[in-house]
Design a protein that fits this description.
The structure holds 2 protein chains of 2 kinds. Chain A has 2 helices and 12 strands; from the N terminus they run ββββββααββββββ. By secondary structure, chain A is mostly beta strands. The radius of gyration of chain A is 15 Å and the shape is globular. Chain A starts with a strand and ends with a strand. Chain B is an alpha+beta fold. A 3-stranded antiparallel β-sheet of chain B has the order 1-2-3, with no helix packed on it. In chain B, strand 2 and strand 3 form a beta hairpin. Classes of the chains: A mainly beta, B alpha+beta.
């Protein structure tokens, strides 16, 4: 199938790769179907693009690149919602991403560690989880010039079966 | 908007299966216990609004900025 992204142009995608966010994403709860896009020259990023809104996309990254000891407890509700069967699913069937915010004026980047995006890649269900008890910030600032060991494992290697390159 | 008065230990039922119980009151703080079915998210409003606001910021993407980083 095809859609025209206002930023990325025409995207052809496999409808079997659409990820369903039953609650949408806070701020955009009308839009529930997304695909993951990658581009080789952005090895640290994925684009989570709505297939229902040509203007709606987010930049995702792997938070563990920046915060090695990132860890949190999921609520029973989130475990149920994402159909997580056991802890071994995490990192395998369940992938964890952070939304990246870029602020033009001050040219800085931040990751939202308070509300990670979790995707069950087998069931193709996603949710932005809001962590209750962890003191992770909504804006975790980082410096992209310090990208020593990141290149070795481009983020899209993790999601070969769901990924669409453009 | 419906406004109800409750005592400690009393509850409010919303629909068939959302229950909000007043657990404790201390000065200007009220502690509530919320019992909602699976799949219904419950959040502190100010945190939810911050997340929502940050998502709106995050969706304003300038690809040129990203290209600079590579």
């Amino acid at each position: 199938m095809k859609f025209i992204s206002s930023r990325l142009g025409e995207i052809e995608y496999d409808p079997n790769k659409v990820i369903y966010f039953p609650l949408g994403i806070p701020g955009f709860d009308k839009f529930k179907r997304y695909i993951l896009l990658s581009k080789e020259n952005f090895p640290y990023f994925l684009f989570l693009h709505s297939v229902e809104n040509k203007d709606l996309m987010f930049i995702l990254t792997d938070p563990f690149i920046f915060v090695k000891d990132y860890s949190f407890k999921l609520s029973d509700d989130d475990i149920y919602f994402l159909e997580i069967k056991n802890k071994f699913d995490i990192g395998k069937n369940i992938l964890i991403f952070s939304i990246v915010t870029i602020r033009e004026k001050i040219k800085n980047f931040s990751l939202n560690l308070k509300a990670p995006i979790l995707i069950n890649i087998e069931k193709k269900i996603g949710k932005q989880v809001i962590l209750y008890n962890d003191n992770y910030p909504i804006r975790f600032h980082f410096d992209f010039s310090d990208k020593s060991e990141k290149v070795n494992n481009p983020i899209f290697n993790k999601i070969t079966n769901l990924n669409t390159s453009f | 908007m419906l406004v109800l008065t409750r005592k400690v230990g009393e509850s409010i039922i919303i629909g068939d299966n959302i229950k909000i119980k007043i657990v404790n009151i201390k000065k200007n703080q009220v502690r509530v216990a919320i019992d909602a079915p699976k799949g219904i998210s419950v959040h502190r409003e100010e945190i939810y609004l911050k997340i929502k606001n940050e998502n709106i910021n995050a969706s304003k993407i300038d690809l040129k900025m990203l290209e600079e980083v590579g």
